[in-house]
Structures are given as structure tokens and as C-alpha cells.
Amino acid sequence: MRLLILFILATSATAQKISYENYKVYQVVPSNEKHVEVLKMFEDNPNIDFWTGLYRSIQPVNVMVPPKLQSKFEAILNQHKIYYKMVLENVEKMINEERQSQSEAASKASGEISFDKYYRYSEVQDYLIRLSREKPDLVKLENYGLSYENRTLTLIRVSSGGNDKKPVIFVDGGIHAREWIAPAQVLYIINQLLESSESQNMIQNIDWVIIPVLNPDGYEYTHTTDRFWRKTRSKGAVCDGVDPNRNFDYHWMGPGSSNDECSNTYAGPTPFSEPETLALSKVIKRFAHRTKMYLSFHSAAKSYLYPWGYTSELPPNADELHSLAVESERAISAVNGTRYKIGSSFNILSPASGSSRDWAYGAAAINLSYTMELPPGGENRFDLPPEEILGVVTEMFEGVKVFHEYVKEEYSKI
Ligand SMILES: *[C@@H]1O[C@H](CO)[C@@H](O)[C@H](O)[C@H]1NC(C)=O
Ligand SMILES: *[C@@H]1O[C@H](CO)[C@@H](O)[C@H](O)[C@H]1NC(C)=O
Ligand SMILES: *[C@@H]1O[C@H](CO)[C@@H](O)[C@H](O)[C@H]1NC(C)=O
Ligand SMILES: [Zn+2]
Q1: If I label 192, which of 12, 77, 169, 344 is the partner at 20 to 30 A Cα–Cα?
Q2: Which ligand is nearest to the CA of 332?
Q3: Domain spanning 108-411: which CATH class is it, in words?
Q4: Among 12-16, 77-81, 104-108, 172-176, the least confident range
Q5: Which residues form the signal peptide (predicted)?
Q6: Ligand 1: which atom is nearest the Cα of residue 150?
Q7: What is the pLDDT of residues 64-120, one digit of tens each?
Q8: Considering every ligand atom, which ligand is closest to the CA of 233?
Q9: In 3D, which of 356, 352, 357, 288 has the Cα closest to residue 321?
Q10: Domain ranges in the chain?
Q11: In terms of DSSP bridges, do strands 152-158 and 168-173 run parallel, antiparallel, or are they unpaired?
């Protein structure tokens, strides 16, 4: 009987929206290595959420803390004289404001999108389907697998011909469910390649393989139930979900991965345990012989990250990766002064093993592999407010143009 009641409580709880009432966000500013060590202690607590991951180096970081842990959290920071300020008093209020602006965005006909709101997975699919119907000579959709909850995983191929001989740029986004700006960015790239006359040259010499939402179960869950869900939705014994960007079979479960099911960086029971990562790895492998560049969009560390994530050592072509990123970033900053950091994932952000980027570089031999970390929503929001999406994605597209130009110059012999 007791078990039955527990079961009912548990299932009804998951059907409801998770509340972040009175969760606070602190901006914490470590000023020496010892401070970083203290913060690392908190990072192991699954109830304390480092929004951008804890930086290895001394940099401010935003941390979301539930009401019952706030006084202890503040006490420990005070005790170690670590500077912090509260930047958000009630996370639930921010979620409600975001929901409000989402609902205020002008509604579009089915298959149409704009860049003043974050779209649901079915709307993303409808957009891709419309493009494939309107431009069958340029666009092919492919369902490359099923998610854990049986959603269709879809990629879009953009090619102006050439019998599958042209170099490929592979782009994806949305591997982390809650990073909504990433699918928005990827949709903008698709939109520019196919619906802007100015970017027609970008599909002349290069074929594109693009996946806007890698983790649709998680993405939908952030819209319906838990705004801060990051992982997949596979069932666990105690906690659900695996961090798909720790689940790739390249230095799996190395530094920056957790073997605790409840952690946001849980690498999974085995490499490629998740249908989403296994399916992605097969697609990357299939195109690898002509893929020259792999770009995986995330937020919110505002950085270009190249391999490795599992070690502080640099990969063989680090100079090339770095100087190309510098050139691309310069094009972004020329728009409006926005600056992104550039470096290896391990060295400028934090250790992260088993990422899609390290795997694309190390296992699929794609030498130009980057994790593109888009900006957060100012000091105190997670994602940008919907009305700021367009500014970010248009800037970033200037950086993508530089990438395209480089791949074209280096690798297309047409
Ligand atoms: C997905 O579909 C398969 C085959 O129909 C089914 O066995 C499985 O239970 C479904 N998974 C979920 C999570 O609904
Ligand atoms: C990638 O880099 C390695 C080592 O730097 C080199 O041997 C290989 O030819 C490169 N691959 C491509 C496709 O350029
Ligand atoms: C450029 O920056 C200004 C001031 O920060 C901002 O108001 C404007 O929206 C930005 N424009 C774009 C395109 O991001
Ligand atoms: Zn991410």
C-alpha cells in the first residue's frame, strides 16, 4: 500500500511543471585557485547548478541554488572569503517572464519561423519539411533514428549538386536540452543558406549536413516540465537522463564526467548508451570522409572551444584551429563589439570528456572541430530573452561565413 502511494506521488509529480520558486542565482567570483577548489566541492552536489559549468580558471560563474541550501552556500563562500552577489532572486519569476515573451511573439503559419521566439520541436520539424517541399533540388531531409522517447531524429542536407563529392560542413545544436539559443542559431544558419539571396554563394562549393535539435526529448521536456533539464530522458534507477555530451566513445568517463546518475554531467552506463548519441555518431561517420568541419552549438560560455576536453594537451593542428577561430571571432566583433573567448575546451572552460567535438576530431578525424558556445542572457538569465535572439544569431553568422570561406579555399577544387 505504501509503495503504491509513493508510486502515485512520484508519477503525479513528474507530470507537473517543476517549480524554481525562490531558487536564487549567485554570481560567484573566485580570485585564486583555492577558491576554485572550494567551488568544485559544490559542483558534485546535483542540487547546485553551475549554469555554464565551473571554469577551471579564475572567472565569474553563475550558480543556481535551491532555497534549502542558500544559507549554507552563502556561509561557506563567506567563510572562504569568496566574493559573490545575488543576480537573480527568484528563478521561477524569470521562467514566467520568458514564457510571457514567448507567448507574445507573433504567431506564424505552420512551417514558417522567425527569430523572435524559441520554437517547439514539432515547429522545427514543420519548418524543415516546408523547406524540403519548396526546394527539393537543394534540400533533403533524412530521419536518421529515434530518440529514447521515440521522437524522430531529423537532419537536413543542403547541396546544390555535385554528386556528393563536395566538402561538407557538419553543424548541430541542442545536444544540451536547456540551451535554447543553440537550435535557434542552427535554424538561422539553415534559413540563411536557403532563404537569403546574399548567402547563395555558401552552398555553391560546400555541402551542409545540419541537425538543429540533437536531443528532442530533453528539449521538449524543458518546454513542458523542467526549464533547466540538460540531459537525455532515458530512465535511470534513481535519476533519469545522461549528459549526451559526455556519452561519446572517446576518453569516455575521463576528467569532467560524472558516474553519478543524478549529476548533470553523468556520462551514462556505457559509451553511446543513448540512442541520440549513437545515431549521431553513425551519421558523422557516414559523412566523415568529406567532412572538413564540425560545429556543435551550445550556450552559454561565449567561446570557441576546440579539442581537447579530456586533457590540457593541445591537438596537432591547434595553431590552425586557433588562428581560424580568431579570424572568425573578429568578424563577429566587427558587428557590434561582442567578444568571444577562444581556446581548448579543457584549458579555457573546464574538463569535459566524451564530447561530440572530441569524438569528431579524435575518432572521425575531422580536423576542424569546434564547440561554439553562444552567450547567456545577460548577467542573470539563462538564455537570452526572445527579443535578443536575432542580434546574437546574425552576429554569429558572420563568424560562420569566415569558416565557410576557409573550408572553401582549403578544400574545394571546383
Ligand atoms: C518506443 O517504441 C518502442 C517500439 O514500439 C517501444 O517498445 C518503447 O517502449 C517506446 N519507448 C518509449 C519510451 O515510449
Ligand atoms: C588532419 O590532421 C592530421 C594531422 O595533423 C593529418 O595527418 C591529416 O591529413 C589531416 N586530415 C585532413 C582531412 O586534412
Ligand atoms: C548592438 O549593441 C547595442 C548596445 O549593446 C544593442 O542595443 C543592439 O541591440 C545590438 N545590436 C545587435 C545587432 O546585436
Ligand atoms: Zn552545452
Answers
A1: 344
A2: 3
A3: alpha beta
A4: 12-16
A5: 1-15
A6: 1
A7: 999 999 999 999 999 999 999 999 999 999 999 999 999 998 888 899 999 999 999
A8: 1
A9: 357
A10: 18-89, 108-411
A11: unpaired
Which tens digits make up the pLDDT trace of 340-354? 999 999 999 999 999
Q: Three-class SS of residue 86?
A: strand
CA of 396 to the centre of ligand 2 (A): 27
* Whole-structure pTM value: 0.94
Which residues contact residue 7 at a Cβ distance below 8 angstroms, ignoring those fewer than 6 apart? none
Fold adopted by 18-89: Alpha-Beta Plaits (3.30.70)
Which residues are catalytic, by number?
373
Residue matched to cell numbers 561554439: 372
The pocket around ligand 1, CB under 6 angstroms, is made up of 148-150
CA 8 to ligand 1 center in whole angstroms: 22
- Ligand closest to Cα of 234 equals 1
The residue whose CA has the least distance to atom 14 of ligand 1 is 149
Candidates 284, 324, 366, 367: which one to mutate for ligand 2, based on the most atoms within 8 Å of Cβ? 367
DSSP summary character for residue 291: E
Would you state the cell numbers that stand for residue 99, as one nine-digit string? 514564457
- C-alpha of 133 from chain center: 28
57: pLDDT strictly greater than 80: no
